[in-house]
């Protein structure tokens, strides 16, 4: 008896000193106890009989979750690692089952179908209960997407010590749902090409932190790797190589892979700027293609943009965007990129151009998403449903909100992953990245999504995302430049702002090591010495 209380006391002390759970993002409502609980050797995740018609992607998600329980083998981040918990585990109860079910009245749809719903109609909430006495754990939700989020959480509850998989925090009760509906990650596959396997690995990482939107910046000035039905010549002539093309089959593969992991794909076709690659197949539509010196025409080489004033070009663009939108089931499509006025009567031309392409997309059932300049710099008249991505600076959020458009946070001063890498333009040894410095996870995490906004303006905020422009990134450094930093916005927009960075860090270490166990090469955030001693390396510790 005395010995048991001593053990309890030890684990209670550890609970205060150490990160005893590796949940990321932090659930919005979490209660934990301090009992140890082991998974039985034959642990099963079963689908309730009421869900007899469980969609295939849910069944596959369950089997992946089960697999991770066996392969994560993550030792707790404390001095002594998994050995520390051995005494507590000798008397621990054993959990042999998690039962997954939908609430009464919920309609059964695939995770994919739920994930591809319009952004504000997705139901990602779930309730997870893990009793301490060994009786069955339960996961319930109103949608398969909610069940998927709950399975992701369940997979993060466990540690390994020798061959035992366990938690020391039972009982666990979680009621969770996201603070913001949009939590994204943008990848540019035009500056450098990424094979489908790399994109899928990025999608895996996104799904583990409950990111629900993959913003695929698929083409740009440098290359046009997307095969578009009816416009095949664009990739044939505009891709870096015939081996560096995303075929329609690849796109379907990526969209399905993402959908099954609770992620919708928002495709972006840059227009009217950033279109030099189109000149390879359609020189008639591009002005100043590869003109030099490039710096007189564009922010980076090569120069070239769509001929705004040409009716034929506007029509070509509208048709292209509609053809692209048919490849992607998402309700959204991203159209405009940064572009720079060249002096002609630009607003007029751009307004006509934008209205033609947006009208075509809206008619095709899509919501256009634009970069902020369309609102702040060019005073283009946009349909009210158009969503704006704020990228130049967080200082611009207020102005975009004042326009009344819904907005997504993507400000370079908080969320650009490529900043701080030095200059890449050649013959320029003193060059630097334009958005210095490197954005640390904690800097991104400190962002306030509603700073300076009125209560009504705050309602326009859909969420936010990290972004990776790939001038200096390829498959070889995709993982380390992205992870675990991109997880910081994933938690900020799921859990909401205001958590204490000091107490958050141990969980992020844990997540980062779990990513490594699952094959994603994250960067260390600190020396391991610090990771094992929460708080000890804080600035004022
Ligand atoms: C969390 O639970 C508490 C107590 O049960 C409740 O008052 C609160 O509204 C819940 N918060 C959320 C975000 O569900
Ligand atoms: C399902 O929806 C009902 C009605 O809105 C709600 O009361 C319940 O909490 C939801 N269940 C979950 C698990 O989110
Ligand atoms: C372009 O379209 C506008 C409006 O549809 C029309 O008035 C104009 O004549 C067209 N110009 C050319 C060169 O076809
Ligand atoms: C547009 O071009 C001008 C002149 O080249 C430059 O000063 C300005 O920063 C550019 N604006 C943007 C948004 O790129
Ligand atoms: C563009 O043309 C319109 C219509 O002729 C005119 O009202 C507007 O002032 C012009 N804008 C610029 C920047 O010259
Ligand atoms: C933007 O355009 C509207 C009309 O289309 C006009 O009323 C307004 O003054 C313009 N704003 C700026 C800053 O040019
Ligand atoms: C909020 O407003 C203050 C004062 O105008 C300004 O210094 C700050 O940069 C603004 N913050 C954001 C995120 O817009
Ligand atoms: C954050 O947590 C640390 C460690 O518990 C504590 O020392 C610090 O005062 C907290 N900071 C704030 C702003 O609450």
UniProtKB/TrEMBL annotation:
One of its GO terms (biological process) is glycosaminoglycan metabolic process. One of its GO terms (cellular component) is membrane. Residues 180-496 form the Glycoside hydrolase family 20 catalytic domain. Residues 23-157 form the Beta-hexosaminidase eukaryotic type N-terminal domain. Transmembrane segments: none annotated. Keywords: Glycoprotein, Glycosidase, Hydrolase, Signal. Its EC number is 3.2.1.52. One of its GO terms (molecular function) is beta-N-acetylhexosaminidase activity. Residues 1-22 form the signal peptide. The keyword Membrane does not apply. It catalyses: Hydrolysis of terminal non-reducing N-acetyl-D-hexosamine residues in N-acetyl-beta-D-hexosaminides. The keyword ATP-binding does not apply. Belongs to the glycosyl hydrolase 20 family. This is Beta-hexosaminidase. It comes from Antrodiella citrinella. The lineage of its organism: Eukaryota, Fungi, Dikarya, Basidiomycota, Agaricomycotina.
